[in-house]
Amino acid sequence: MKLSAGGTPTRQATIIFAVVMAAYTLSFFQRFAPASIAQDLSLAFDTTAASLGVLAATYFYVYTLMQVPTGVLVDTLGPRRIILLGGIVSCVGSLWFGLADTLTQALIGRTLVGLGVSVTFIAMLKIIALSFDERRFASLAGAGVFVGNIGAVLAGVPLAYAATELGWRNVFVAVAVASLVLGTLSWGMMRGSAAMGGVKVDRTVVMGGLLSVIRNRLTWAPALANLGLAGSYFTFAGLWAMPYLTQVHGYSRSLAATHLSLMYAGFAIGCLVLGFLSDKLHRRKSILIVASTVYVAIWTVWMWGGAMSATLTMALFFLMGFSTAGFTLTWACAKEVNPPQLAGMSTSIANVGGFFGAAVMQPVVGLLMDQVWSGATMNGVRVYTLDDFRFGFSLVVVMAVLGLVAAFFIRETACRNLWVDAQLKAGA
């Protein structure tokens, strides 16, 4: 697939991008769904906070492990094959999870879901890199995440409502069908596109490229920023935000779900706005630092945990989502300090941080809370106090601060690839 004259993307490229964005919405839905149905899962599988954390984090374990292999596969086999395989695997996993009778079966289902959806995002970034002008990379990546966040919004109030009316199990059966349909549709839309099919390469060349990305010191500041910022956000938004709101602030399930939807909406809008602003101003680092500072500041409010109006907490949840979106610039930051042909690998290295952080922190937060839990329960579900949440969230705050500090060490490229610029200067 190539750009048409004047750098305008072909109609085929635009349609493929739209279909893959639709598939990406399911990835976001699966990522944040446990937060809205945490109480249902606790009742269905009789879980402690630690085991509930493990169940939610299983998605992130597999997602983390698959990021670098996905980058390699996208750069070699191409997006077409792995998106189809991802759709099939996530279909099986969602069915398994929805029909699970035990916690072990649910863990298997979540593992398969994480494995299946883990390929979609890096494939989408590769499609952007192949088919669109590099100066629009952050804007289009932000647009992709904006659309993907429709899935996160659906995992808020709509999922809470559907779980009450239809049952959470039926919801995941329906998601399984949608996963298979979109994977198959992506395969069909990319038929005949050589670029989407990948290229045959020597394994030594692949490993050499991967090692060059890893050895590049400029790759690691974006990766660490992603680790701290995205990891802390996914930990909170993907599981613990709902229990925090209902048990500390005393909100109803529907009001708490509204907070989640606002946070997801804020994140979606932030991805679009900050990506556009970054490309428009030709700046990555300064925008990331400002957004990250706001994000860390909001964490101090949750740690305080004092009484506030629902209007204020909803506004803060929206702002938290918006400011967190700054971490999406880390993908462009990593891509622009590595060779363009290694876009899949470089973005996957940066992206692995956030999912690794969430994979570790979600269960550890629960474990810390269990250590200080008083033993109180309500309707068969454990109840935690503000002090319990403070103790668990202390780790999350440390990681958020780490992400902010790492942002100061990112190389500003003015939205240009350093390797391409070096080659142009050498040619001149």
Outline the structure in words:
This protein has helices spanning 11-36, 38-45, 49-76, 79-98, 103-117, 120-131, 137-154, 157-165, 168-189, 194-197, 203-215, 220-247, 253-281, 285-304, 310-324, 329-335, 343-372, 386-407, 418-427, and strands at 377-378, 381-382. The protein has one domain: Up-down Bundle (Growth Hormone, Chain: A), CATH 1.20.1250.20. The protein is built from 19 helices and 2 strands. β1 (377-378) and β2 (381-382) form a beta hairpin. Helices cover 79% and strands 1% of the residues. The chain has a two-stranded antiparallel ribbon. α13 packs parallel to α15. It is an all-alpha fold. 57% of the residues are buried. The longest helix is centred in the last third of the chain and has 30 residues, at 343-372. The chain starts with 10 loop residues before the first helix and ends with a helix.
List the helices and strands and how they pair.
Blueprint: H1 11-36, H2 38-45, H3 49-76, H4 79-98, H5 103-117, H6 120-131, H7 137-154, H8 157-165, H9 168-189, H10 194-197, H11 203-215, H12 220-247, H13 253-281, H14 285-304, H15 310-324, H16 329-335, H17 343-372, E1 377-378, E2 381-382, H18 386-407, H19 418-427
Antiparallel strand pairs: 1-2
Organism: Fluviibacter phosphoraccumulans
GO cellular component, one term: lysosomal membrane
Catalytic activity: L-lysyl-L-lysine(out) = L-lysyl-L-lysine(in); L-aspartyl-L-lysine(out) = L-aspartyl-L-lysine(in); L-alpha-aminoacyl-L-arginine(out) = L-alpha-aminoacyl-L-arginine(in); L-lysyl-L-alpha-amino acid(out) = L-lysyl-L-alpha-amino acid(in)
